[in-house]
Queue: 2 jobs
Job 1
Amino acid sequence: MRRLLFCAFLVFLGGRVGAAIKPIFRPVSDLDTVRYVFMNADRDPEWLRVKKRIASFLPAPVELILYQEESSDKHDWKQEFSDVIAMERVQLVQIPKSGATPWARELFPIATWDENGAIRLVDSRDSFRVELDNWLASWLGVGLIRHGFYVNSANLIADQSGNCILAERRFSYLVPSSVYEKYYGCGSLVRLPYQLDAGSVDESVVILKSGVVATDNDQYEISLKKNGYRVLRLPKPRAQNATYANVIIVNGIVIMPVFGERSDAMAMNVYLNSGFTVFPVKSDDLAVSRRRSLRSLTMTYPEPIQAQGLMN
C-alpha cells in the first residue's frame, strides 16, 4: 500500500501549499474517467438486448465504439442503437482479425498512465488467440509496450493509487510480480489463491475505491483482508454462473447485472452505499449460457492524453 500512503501525502501537501498532484505510473483503473466503451457488434438477439441496455446508461460524453471484423457485412449497426444513445456518440469500426467472440475485455490491451499523465498500452494475451493491441495503439495514437508474458486484461484490476489485484489461474503463476511492477506500474500486488471455478479476478472482486473492495468469494475475502483491504460482502446469486462483481463502472455509474432474485437489492445497496449511481441490466440468461457478465462484454479507456485530474 506504499503508493496509497504516498498519494495521501501528496494530497496533504497540495492542500497545504496549493501544489498540483503529480501523475504516477500506474494501471488505468475502472474508477478513472472513461471516454470510450468498446463492444463487439453482434447479431445475437440476447447480446443486442444487453448491449443496448448498457449503451442507454452511458453518460455523455462517453462514446460507444462498436467493432467488427473486416467483412462484407453491410448491416448498419449504429442504427440498432439509435433509440438508446445519440448517434454522434457512436462509432462503428472495422478491426482485422478481431473474431466473433463478444468478450471485449479479454481481447484489448491494458492501459497505464505514464509519469506525464499520458496513456500507454501494455501487451495482453488471451485464451482466444486474438490480439488487438497494435490496432488500438494506432487508433488512439499512443505507444505500445510488449513483454511476452501471458497477462489477461480481465484478470488484473487496480485502484487509483496503483494497488493491483489478480487471481491465480492458467498461466498467471508463470508471470513474476516484477512484471506487474515494471510494465504496469503496480505499487502493490495481491495474488489471490487459485480456485478451479473462480475465473478471472473481475468475476469475483470489484474495487470500489482505493483500499476498499467487494467480493462474493470467501477465500478471496480472507486474503484481501490480510493484505489490508476493507472488504464489503456481495451476495452470491442462485443463478448458474452468476455474479454481482462483474459490473461496468463508468464515471460514477455502476451498470450491474441482476437476476430477478431477492439478492439483487442487497448487491445494489453495496454499490449505492459506496457512492455510485446504479443501473440494473437483466442478465440471468446471459450468465447461464455464457459464463461471463457485463464487464466482460466491454473494454473501457480514458482520453489518450490526460495530464491533469488523473487521481480525482
Job 2
Amino acid sequence: MNLFFAVLSFGACAATGFTYGSRYRKIYLFWNSFLRFNRFANVQIKTFSCPIEKITETLPNGDFKTFAKHAAKSDANIFIPNYLTLEEKEYLTSYFHQIRRIDFAGISSFLEGALPFLEEREAKAKSLYDKNTKFSKKLGILITVITQVLKKSDRDDIATLVALAGLIIVLTLVIHMISDLFETIKTIFYLE
C-alpha cells in the first residue's frame, strides 16, 4: 500500500513539474517577443518604410509570430494565445488594429508610445518566470531533506521515489531554461 501511495505521489509531482513552469515561460517569451518586435518594427519603419506584413515574416517561430502574422493582416482576436489576461488580449487587438489603420509616420510614434506598456509587461512576466525558477531551487533542497529523513527512518524505497520525482520536476524546469538559451542565441545571431 505504501508503494502505491509513493508511485501516486511520484506521478503527481512529475505532472506538476511539467505544467507548472510552462505557463510562465510562455507568457514571458510572448511579451519578450512582442517587445523585440515593437523595437524592430519601429527601426524598420523609420529606416526603410517597410510594411508590417513584411516585418512579421522575419520573426522567429513561436506563439507571437503566429499571432503577429495574422494580426497584421486581419482581426487578431482569433489568434491571441489563451494564457493571456483579458486586458492583455484587448491591448493586443487594439495595438494591431491601430497599426493597420495609420500611415508610416503615425505608426512610428505609436510604436514608441507602446514601449512603456510592453516593457512593463515583459518585466512582470520575467519576474514571474524568475520566481518559478527559484521555486525549483527550493524544491531541490526540500526534496533532499525529505529523502534524507526517509532514508534515516529505513524507508529507502519511498526515499528513492521522492528523489526521482524531485529530479524530474527540476529537470523539467531546467530544460525550459536551456531552450530559452538556444532561442536567445537564435534571435541574437538571426539564425532560423
